[in-house]
Write a structure and sequence with these properties.
It is built from eleven helices and eleven strands. The chain is an alpha/beta fold and 317 residues long. Bound molecules: guanosine-5'-diphosphate-beta-L-fucopyranose.
Length: 317
């Protein structure tokens, strides 16, 4: 696809640069000839509109990546609906409105595959948005992310802002959250498998029935897609960012056992929720635009496990 927004010499703000995705975007942008802007939580509270606008007016970013979000796995989403709805709404509204007010040239808002209806056709095309009821375990987060897409569209429609939205699938990678109550499935199972191995257990306990299907993408692939879209994409419609492949959680657990070195003996704890049965996004639009992921799941998991081992104390604190 043609480059319509070269990043050379641009001041690019990565909101959420300490998170798994934001830090991957920073790493990826370091290979571009641009200036990267960041602000820690202590320097800027994204929940305070006046502070966000003042910081943006002072720092003058020309492009913005909205990678800041309150994120979590199925249990955290289900347990803290107010936090997931309020915190995500407020921070995305503050950044997107601030970007309009300070004349930002290009903004990419990052959403999530959970914006789609629970029973959407599979693989899920972008136009399945708002065609049916959401998955109840994460509808609060999904509503906030849908609002973010709509904000980007509204500022484009009313004010001509070049704001776009990308919807990544379930992500994993270095810097992931390994807290068993709030993490996503891959880091949770990696930690559980590792600790099971240390205890000498012969099995791995997973939540739910093991039958739900999930699609995964490495955070570095996601970051590469975000930079690709920043440079080449300018459209009202959001665009899916995925691998185009999904697999049952039980199989995912088996791969993690292989990576960690635990026997593939999986036990299901069906007192825990399954969530949506399947959410494979169609990867067609991004592929047609010329982008493809590079990191295969097994390789990405091996690399994540090395990161986990190297950062064990901090990751499990
Ligand atoms: O990754 P995960 O928490 O989130 O769970 P969702 C994916 C699947 O893995 C579910 C199962 O079917 C879980 O029941 N699973 C098995 C486990 N064992 C475990 C475990 O030990 N921990 C966890 N966390 N899951 C989230 C949404 O949905 O996906 C968010 O809640 C967001 O809003 C995110 O969209 C990407 O894929 O179900």
């Amino acid at each position: 696809m043609r480059e319509i927004y070269p990043l050379r010499g641009k001041r690019v703000w990565v909101a959420g640069h300490r998170g798994m995705v934001g830090s991957a975007v920073v790493r990826r942008l370091q290979t571009e000839d641009c200036e990267i802007l960041t602000a820690t939580r202590a320097e800027l509270d994204l929940g305070r509109q006046a502070d966000v606008e003042a910081w943006m007016a002072d720092q003058r970013p020309e492009a913005v990546v909205v990678a800041a979000a309150k994120v979590g796995g199925i249990l955290a989403n289900d347990s803290y609906p107010a936090d997931f709805l309020y915190e995500n709404l407020i921070l995305e509204a503050n950044i997107i409105h601030g970007a309009y007010r300070t004349g930002v040239e290009k903004l990419v808002f990052l959403g999530s595959s959970c914006i789609y209806p629970k029973l959407a056709p599979q693989p899920i095309p972008e136009d399945a948005l708002l065609t049916g009821a959401l998955e109840p375990t994460n509808e609060w987060y999904a509503i906030a992310k849908i609002a973010g897409i709509k904000l980007a569209q509204a500022y484009r429609k009313q004010h001509g802002c070049d704001f776009i939205s990308a919807m990544p699938t379930n992500l994993y990678g270095p810097g992931d959250n390994f807290d068993l109550n709030s993490s996503h499935v891959l880091p949770a199972l990696m930690r559980k498998a590792h600790e099971a191995k240390l205890r000498g257990d012969d099995h791995l306990t997973i939540w739910g029935s093991g039958t739900p299907l999930r699609e995964f993408l490495h955070a570095d692939d996601c970051a590469d897609a975000v930079v690709f879209l920043l440079k080449t994409y300018s459209d009202y419609e959001h665009i899916n960012v995925g691998s185009g492949v999904d697999l049952p959680i039980r199989e995912v657990a088996g791969i993690i056992c292989d990576v960690v070195g635990l026997p593939r003996n999986i036990v299901c704890d069906t007192s825990k929720p399954d969530g949506t049965p399947r959410k494979l996004m169609s990867a067609d639009r991004l592929r047609e635009a010329g982008w493809e992921p590079r990191i295969e799941l097994r390789d990405g998991l091996r690399q994540s496990y090395q990161w986990f081992l190297a950062n064990y104390s901090a990751a499990t604190a």
